[in-house]
Amino acid sequence: MSDPKSSKPLHQMKIRLFIAAFLTLLLASCNNADISKKENKTNPNKTNYLEVFCFHGTRQCVTCKNMKAYTLKALQLNFATQLKDSSIIFQIIDVDEEKNAAIAQKFEATGTALMFNKVVNGKDSIFDLSDFAFEKANDESKYIPQFTEIVSSLTANLK
Asked: To which H or E segment does residue 64 belong?
């Protein structure tokens, strides 16, 4: 028969390991549920393209999460070909990560922001669509068509 005193520390250790594993999975799933961490890098052969950046901080509200989700959904539904050929480049950027400091600084993003960079002949034209995103991000039926219209107008002459 086992000594109850000696099994108690083992039982506590198992509980602690389980809790640690659970918290690790929970945090990893929240941080990695960023819809698309895949970075679609710029095609060096293209001089004309549109970059779409969803900036966010580590902590995110529902509106911020909706902005990213609806942006990605609109791009996938309406601009799949352009995403594939890198005419449109979509990235989600955590401004709190040190590796993103330079791009966050370029776009003056310190938290949640929706930014476009229309590159024509290698020259940047930056558009801040954060106000639009915050106004519409809690209504998918308004966000996606209006976002699509904006992207269509910005990409109309990108050949």
From this structure: helix 62-78
> Per the structure block, which two tokens stand in for 43?
């095609």
* pLDDT per position as a tens digit, 97-111: 899 989 888 998 988
> What does the alpha-carbon distance between residue 51 and residue 159 come to, in Å, rounded to a whole number?
15
Residue pair 38/75 in contact by the 8 Å Cβ criterion: no
The domain in which residue 10 lies consists of 1-33
Are both 77 and 132 inside the same structural domain? Answer: yes
Domains in the chain: how many in total?
2
Taken in order 110, 111, 113, 117, the sign of the CA dihedral is positive
What values do phi and psi take at 21, rounded to 5? Answer: -65, -45
Side-chain-side CA neighbours of 20 within 13 Å: the count stands at 6
Greater model confidence, 52 or 12: 52
Task: Give the CA distances from residue 11 to residues 3, 4, 8, 23, in Å, rounded to whole numbers and listed in that order.
Answer: 13, 10, 5, 18
Beta-bridge partner residues of 35: none
Confirm whether 98 is domain-assigned: yes
Contacts of 134 (CB under 8 A, 6+ apart): 63, 67, 112
Dist CA 74 CA 18 (whole Å): 39
